[in-house]
Amino acid sequence: MVHGLAGHQGPVVVSVSAEMAGGRLKLQVRNTIVQGRARGGEGIGIRNVRERLAVQFSGGAAFEAGPNGTEWISEIDMRRFSNRPNRKSRAAALLRRGCDGRHHRG
After folding, report:
1. Domain ranges of the chain
2. According to a count of CB atoms within 10 Å of the terminal CB, is the N or C end of the chain lower?
């Protein structure tokens, strides 16, 4: 957690929150910034997060980040995904291939 701390004379406060509502997950990270030091435009880190969310979640997630007074706020808002691995389906597939799941190669 070193990036973005240049110019701070005192402590940096970071808060992280997560909220589920209406089938959506909202993740938010806030940290203090030096007044007037927030750069305009997107850096490579913000672009990378935005691109990865677009690829991984096919438009099911939105990302916003930017200065707000003396804080930088980054927020991801995405639909709830419920496609957890189904252990029974995996076990059935392994058995069809002649594998018990413990000693399978390839």
Report:
1. 14-96
2. C
Q: CB burial class (10 A; 0-12, 13-18, 19+) of residue 33?
A: buried
* HEC sequence for the chain: CCCCCCCCCCCCCEEEEEEEECCEEEEEEEEECCCCCCCCCCCHHHHHHHHHHHHHHCCCEEEEEEEECCEEEEEEEEECCCCCCCHHHHHHHHHHCCCCCCCCCC
Q: pLDDT of 14-54, one tens digit each?
A: 999 999 998 899 999 998 887 666 565 678 888 999 999 99
Output the 3-class SS for 53-78.
Answer: HHHHHCCCEEEEEEEECCEEEEEEEE
CA distance 51 to 42: 12
Residue 10 burial (CB count, 10 A): 7
CB contact at 8 A, 4 and 73? no
